[in-house]
Every structure is written in C-alpha cells, then in structure tokens.
Write a structure and sequence with these properties.
alpha/beta, TIM Barrel, eight-stranded parallel β-sheet, globular, binds glyceraldehyde-3-phosphate, EC 4.1.2.4, DeoC, schiff base, lyase, Deoxyribose-phosphate aldolase
C-alpha cells in the first residue's frame, strides 16, 4: 500500500536532473608550487564548525525531489570494497550492483531508466575481475584502484610509483593515491608537491584522486594547505580519507577542502573534484553533502566528473529510502546487499 506521504513517480524535471549528460571538465594540469599562497592559507575552526552545524536538515528536500536527489547521489558513488577478505566473487557482485544499483520494480515505479554508480573502487588485485565483469555486462563504468601502499602509504617509494603503473596497466582508469602524512605534519610542502607530481605522472591518462587521510593531519589548516598543494601538483580530485582512519569524512573537513577547491578554481580556472569517503552510510548524510556542494561550489560540481562519495554501504540505505518512497514501507536491510 502506498503511503499518503509519498508520490511514486519523480517529476520530469527531477528525472532529467538525475540523467543529464555531463560535459567533461578540462583536466587540472597543476602549476608551480606557490609557497606564498600555501603559507597564506588559514582555517578558522570555530567559524567552520558554526557553519557546519547549520547544515544537516536545513536544506532538507522532500518526496519526489528527495527521490531525484537520491538517484543523483547514486550516480556519484564510488561503490567500494576494500577488505582483506575480498574475493573475485564479491567483486563480481559489487560490479553487478554498480551496474544496476536499484531494483527494477523501484526504478519502474519512479519512472526512471537505467542509472549506474559513478565507479567501482577496489584493491589492485581485484582490478582484472572488475574490468572483465563490467565488460561482460556491457557496462561502461570506471574501475578505480586504491594505490601507493594504501592505506598507510609507507611502502618503498619506488614501489608506490610502480604500483600506480601496474594498476593502470591492469585496466584501472582512476587511481586513488594516499599522500605521505609525514610531509604535512612536518610542513615539508615541497616533498608533498613532488610526491603528488610523481604520482600524477605515473597515472598517465588515468585520473588521480589524492587521499589526504584528514583524520591524521592534525589541524584544519593542515587539511587546507595539503588540499592546495595536491591541486597545485595536478590532482584531479581531492579525497578525505581511506575509510581506515579512526576519523574519516566529516563536514568541517569537507567545508575546508571544498573552499580550497573553490579558491583554486577562482585562481586558475580549473575545476578539481571532491570525494568525501569513509563512514558515509546514510541517505540523509548524502543529501547534506550534496547541499553543501551546491551551496559552496554550485551545480557545476554536482556531476560524477567532479563529485563522488567513497562508500561501501551508502547505496543500501539509499535504495531502502527509494523503496519507502514508492511503497510507503521500509524493507529489511538484507534486501539491499552489496552497498
Ligand atoms: O574510499 C572508500 C572508503 O574506504 C569506504 O569507506 P566505508 O566502508 O566507511 O564506506
């Protein structure tokens, strides 16, 4: 039975919002390290926290608009499995879910055609399985690989660079590198810039996401400076976390990184993408992140080319909310496996 509170179909405008073809932005080439700019960067923690406290709930969207935003959020998920016990079977199921993220009866009730997640994200060893599975399904979806000694980034430097090359050869078109936290914590911005430059060069045509591991950087000012240095060195995306730190994506860290992206865009004209990752598992949190992006960067950034969620379990909750939207009932979580 359908609840009186719900409408089963999204409006045409909302469906178009979820499915608009996007123009690929020009790739950030980077620039020379500008230490004057880096040193000038500050972060006012109490102002940032005040701003973030106003976010959850304030821009809440309802009914068919919420369904449309949730569909859009799905298209921007890097559907992730990064576990020591990953198997080819799990990765094949992940790819099947990424290719068809919402059950057909829910999609039909919403009046929406096929969508996919933004990418799948796996460890190096699982790249061939992911590439072959997606190819076999006839689905064009990027395979992202975590790299450079993920999650700590402390393996021998030449092996970190070589790991990137191996992953690109194996078919990954996006590489999520981890930075050396020690360069940030010791203020060695030149070393961070050089490392990021090497990683970007090793990626070739594959896009590079720089994982800052913000929970280990000590201060919001460090997060702001590391964001800027990675963008100067040519990062295509900056990403909060590996999902393995004790503190992963948060709104204050996101605000700092998003404003760094905005400053970099205003100074250079290049749009760098943003990927909050780790611990984002609820549909309502996804909506808060999208509202933050819309308010701080504008609609241009609300595309898979410039925004991704790094998440292993968010999709399950979004699908559950969409099912509630069309039926008026919540289903058990086991009905939404892999995501
Ligand atoms: O990059 C993605 C994260 O590792 C996923 O973290 P999560 O399992 O907390 O969603």
């Amino acid at each position: 039975m359908q609840s009186e509170q719900t409408s089963t179909r999204t409006s045409k405008r909302d469906r178009d919002t979820a499915q608009l073809p996007q123009v690929t932005p020009a790739r950030n080439p980077g620039m020379a390290l500008d230490m004057n700019w880096v040193r000038a960067v500050q972060a006012n923690t109490s102002a940032i926290e005040r701003r973030c406290a106003t976010l959850p709930g304030r821009r809440s969207v309802k009914k068919e608009h919420q369904a449309a935003w949730l569909l859009k959020a799905i298209t921007m998920i890097d559907l992730t499995t990064l576990a020591g016990d990953d198997t080819p079977g799990r990765v094949r199921r992940l790819c099947a879910k990424a290719a068809h993220p919402v059950r057909p009866e829910i999609m039909q009730a919403l009046g929406v055609d096929a969508i996919t997640t933004g990418a799948v994200c796996v460890y190096h060893d699982m790249i061939p399985t992911a590439v072959e599975t997606l190819k076999h399904m006839g689905v064009s979806l990027p395979v992202a690989a975590v790299s450079t000694g993920f999650p700590a980034g402390l393996s021998p430097y030449h092996l970190r660079v070589e790991e990137i090359r191996e992953s690109v050869r194996a078919g990954a078109s996006e590489i999520d590198i981890v930075i050396s936290r020690q360069h940030v914590l010791t203020g060695n911005w030149q070393a961070l810039y050089d490392e990021m430059r090497d990683f970007r060069e090793a990626c070739g045509d594959a896009h590079v996401k720089a994982i800052l591991a913000t929970g280990e950087l000590g201060s919001l000012r460090n997060v702001a400076r590391a964001s800027l240095v990675c963008m100067m060195a040519g990062a295509d995306f900056i990403k909060t976390s590996t999902g393995k730190e004790s503190v992963n994506a948060t709104l204050p860290v996101s605000l700092v990184m998003i404003r760094a992206i905005r400053d970099y865009y205003e100074a250079t004209g290049y749009q760098v993408g943003y990927k909050p990752a780790g611990g984002i598992s609820k549909a309502k949190d996804a909506l808060t992140y999208l509202a933050l992006i819309k308010e701080e960067l504008g609609d241009d950034w609300l595309t898979p080319e410039l925004f991704r969620f790094g998440a292993s379990s968010l999709l399950g909750d979004i699908e559950r909310q969409l099912e509630h939207h069309v039926t008026g009932h919540y289903s058990a979580t086991y009905r939404h496996p892999m995501g």
